[in-house]
Amino acid sequence: MNYVLLTSLSFLVGIVVGLTGIGGASLITPMLILVFQVPPAIAISSDVMAATLMKIVGGAKHWQQQTLDLQVAKWLACGSVPGSLIGVGILHLLRQTSSLDLDALLLRLIGMAILGVTGIAIVQMLLLIFAPQLRLPALPKLDLETLKGKIWTIAIGAILGCIVGLTSVSSGSLFALVLIAFFQLDARKLVGTDIFQAAILLSFTAIGHLSLGTVDWGLVLPIWCGSVPGVLLGAKICEVTPQRALRFVVYSLLVMVSWKLVHSV
């Protein structure tokens, strides 16, 4: 195991996460499996543990910079945390009672959904750049000052949390889509809110993976050494990055994540 290379690559991943809020699990797990030949079960559990600290540090930095919407993150977490626990429970039940390759099916469906929605978002952004005179319809914005808005936010968080609990992937990209579609956050607050919410969600998910006994601390520690300073640097860059360029980076990463999910099986 080349720990210097692992730490260096983790530093780059940390920058991407701090800058965009997404990409942690989508980059670290394949990196461990493809570059370092780590068994998938160990790679996934070690990645979850490493990503948890990375998201916590990044979320704290964005909170300090006030580049997040705390209300949105709080109400999404109210749904996503119990949703993820339900998802884990459903996964165990289905695996015990069915021969269906549930992970493969879910990954492909999630990937296609993200690819479709992100494709529409990119087209909309390009039209706004090259044809600003057009007035395109937008999805209704959820108002967290109302009971209806809070209930819908908790429900959406629960559904996405359940998906994360079932698959252990795509927490960043799924929630980024929701933040774009239903809250219309500016790019900086989108990133910070996504990271902060993911930190809460992954903290509970990590406990489950610890109980499985598949976390390799020999992998987690070098990833932390690289990803933590990387995510701090990425969060700082996010504070001064132009809105349009940052949003394009987010969309581009979502396309890559979705493409990987669609072709992962």
Automatic annotation (TrEMBL):
Record bears the keyword DNA-binding: no
Spell out the Pfam families in the cross-references: TauE (PF01925)
Q: Name one GO cellular component term.
A: plasma membrane
The UniProt entry lists membrane topology as:
Multi-pass membrane protein
Subcellular location(s) of the protein = Cell membrane; Membrane
| UniProt keyword annotations, A-Z | Cell membrane, Membrane, Transmembrane, Transmembrane helix
Q: Is tRNA processing there in the keyword field?
A: no
Q: Which InterPro entries match?
A: TM_pro_TauE-like (IPR002781), TSUP/Inactive_protease-like (IPR051598)
Give the residue spans that cross the bilayer. 12-34, 41-60, 72-94, 106-131, 151-183, 195-213
Q: What is its main location?
A: membrane
- Family affiliation: Belongs to the 4-toluene sulfonate uptake permease (TSUP) (TC 2.A.102) family.
Q: What is this protein called?
A: Probable membrane transporter protein
